[in-house]
Automatic annotation (TrEMBL):
The chain crosses the membrane at residues 31-53. It comes from Carnegiea gigantea. GO terms for molecular function: glycosyltransferase activity. The keyword Membrane applies. Residues 288-446 form the Glycosyl transferase family domain. It holds the Pfam family Glycos_transf_1. The keyword Cytoplasm does not apply. CDD domains: GT4_PimA-like (cd03801). It comes from the Eukaryota. This is Glycosyl transferase family 1 domain-containing protein.
């Protein structure tokens, strides 16, 4: 592929450099191009710190495995649009990571190799090269709240020089991030980018109340579905194959109704947390915050409702993707005990944690997004399910409320125990009103096409970069 010409107005004398700390690959490719188109940035540096947090919002890295795994799903051919993107448009792209390729796991390894394929430099977040790069950069994008620790640990005395050109991308909404050691520099950075309005508001409140600091200018950027996911979602042959395959494996028939709660289980390694100087890691997959327990209760209640009212509906099943018996968690044992006690073993299916969610999205009928408390920061699985034309039964909390249109693309229920009966009723509603269920799925898909594609996200990010780069001019 021919290299695009450098931007006519680029100032080749100045080493304009943009440094990101952690961005999605496909999006980044676009940002790079957009940034170049918009701002004459002649050198672009991408720093990627491994998304070290296993939070409801830290999806970035996990998504890569999902994407690459999806390409390998048999039954449909993947497009070969993969590698040849010209990141080179007069840009130097550098990805800085906390782990060296040799010690990374499969996901990071394949991501790094994709970067290298695209001419992106990859080097360690520790060391002189990282410091030099950050000093030269026009913009440094920090990914995740904990990336704040990198500033002091690596940049040391140089921190004040880099702060005014930092765009901080935050995907977390949990108490333990509200620590000064992570976020004390927040007020001095050029801007913050957050996945949902409600999370942005939460950060504003918490930083003020808990830490007595104020947020910088904050931009909300909803995420978008990857092209790879859309390819599967829009390929009816692939979907049918996946559906038959998964249903057969579960022992459920084509006409049975499947309600699923899906969490990508990629727990972040304790080792990485340790590197970051943190003892505490959080566990992804089956956990109380994801509300699988309340979902099972609601499911059981819906079966009873159907029995009581003698409703004619196909056999219903609950699928819980993201379990991990090897973890021996008390919570998961409770879930399984509940299923045994209520004698619904033949209706409930636990599926080990996986990063490859497309086969399940292709196989189920309804996605349940039952995140509790403050809910999801954004809730990527929600837009992914909508891409597969699935209605969503979600808690009226967090980012879900910014995605699901109540009564149109899904039905919302309250978080907490008081949500169990409403969720049970909503499940019955979707089981009995087939047309409505299908219509909701279609509307969800339309919404994705309107707002939640990778291109939309890239546009939103381009806007943010434009704003932030205006401010950072003159700091290099
Ligand atoms: C933020 O604080 C305001 C005022 O106290 C409150 O109304 C709002 O619900 C809070 N928002 C979040 C997300 O915590
Ligand atoms: C699921 O995980 C458990 C525990 O790690 C393992 O024993 C089991 O074989 C796994 N099942 C599948 C289908 O991979
Ligand atoms: C969703 O819509 C239903 C029906 O109008 C309503 O009863 C319910 O309160 C709504 N829920 C939310 C969270 O808006």
């Amino acid at each position: 592929m021919a290299k695009p010409h450098p931007h006519p107005h680029s100032h080749s004398s100045s080493t304009s450099t943009t440094a990101f700390l952690g961005l999605g690959l496909h999006k980044k490719k676009k940002w790079v191009l957009m940034v170049l188109a918009l701002f004459s940035v002649s050198t672009l540096i991408v720093l990627l710190m491994r998304a070290a947090i296993s939070d409801s919002c830290a999806h970035r890295i996990r998504d890569y495995r999902k994407d690459s795994a999806q390409r390998e799903i048999p039954g449909f051919s993947s497009s070969s649009r993969a590698s040849s993107s010209p990141l080179g448009v007069g840009a130097d792209v550098v990805w800085i990571t906390y782990q060296k390729p040799a010690e990374t796991d499969e996901v990071v390894y394949s991501l790094e190799n994709k970067m290298l394929d695209r001419g992106v430099q990859v080097f360690s977040a520790k060391g002189q090269k990282a410091i030099d790069t950050a000093l030269k950069a026009d913009l440094v994008v920090l990914n995740t709240a904990v990336a704040g620790k990198w500033l002091d640990a690596v940049l040391k005395d140089n921190v004040p020089r880099v702060l005014p050109k930092i765009l901080w991308w935050i995907h977390e909404m949990r108490g333990h991030y509200f620590k000064l050691e992570f976020v004390k520099h927040l007020p001095y950075v050029a801007g913050a980018m957050i996945d949902s309005h409600i999370t942005a508001e939460y950060w504003k409140n918490r930083t003020k109340e808990r830490l007595g600091i104020s947020m910088p200018e904050t931009f909300v950027v909803h995420l978008g579905n990857s092209k790879e996911l859309m390819e599967v979602a829009e390929n009816s042959v692939a979907k049918r194959v996946l559906r038959e395959h998964v249903r057969e494996a579960l022992g459920v028939r084509n006409e049975d109704l499947l309600f699923a709660i899906i969490n990508r289980g990629r727990g972040v390694s304790a080792a990485l947390w340790k590197k970051m100087g943190e003892e505490k890691g959080t566990k992804e997959g089956v956990s109380r915050g994801k509300g699988q327990d309340l979902f099972l209760r609601a499911f059981h209640e819906s079966l009873q409702l159907i029995k009581q009212k003698k409703l004619q509906v196909p056999p219903m099943h609950a699928v819980i993707v993201g379990s991990d018996m090897s973890a021996q968690s008390k919570f998961e044992t409770e879930l399984r005990d509940f299923v045994t006690e209520k004698k619904i073993q033949d209706r409930v299916h636990f599926i080990n944690k996986t990063l490859t969610v497309a086969p399940y999205l292709a196989s189920i009928d309804v996605l349940v997004q039952n995140s509790q408390a403050r809910g999801e920061c954004f809730g990527r699985i929600t837009i992914e399910a909508m891409a597969f034309q699935l209605p969503v039964l979600g808690t009226a909390a967090g980012g879900t409320t910014e995605i699901v249109v109540n009564e149109t693309t899904g039905l919302l229920h309250p978080a907490g125990k008081e949500g169990v009966t409403p969720l049970a009723r909503n499940m019955v509603k979707l089981a009995t009103h087939v047309e409505r269920r299908l219509t909701m799925g279609k509307k969800g898909y339309e919404k994705v096409k309107e707002r939640f594609l990778e291109d939309h996200m890239a546009e939103r990010i381009a806007f943010v970069l434009k704003q932030v780069l205006k401010k950072t001019k003159g700091h290099t």
